[in-house]
Amino acid sequence: MKLDDDIHNYYEHLVVEYISELGLDKNKSPDYLADLCCLTLNQVPPRYIRYEVDMAFYLPQTERLQMKMNVEQAVTKSIHYLDQAAANKKEA
User: What is the pTM of this model?
Assistant: First the structure.
């Protein structure tokens, strides 16, 4: 078994999905997106899984909605942080 192939954090999927919903993958640089993902994932608890299908069948709807809300809040906070850092850099 290779852990890096068999196990992943389900929040990674949710974060990438939400970033795409916002269209940020179309107008932000790869470096910005990588920083955004790291900042966001550090704000949410890890949820390790082997198969996506497990989450589809065994995750209660209330927990799924809470995870989505956690991601939305964390992405918003991370965007604000990155935008502030960029603005401060321009001023310096």
Answer: 0.89
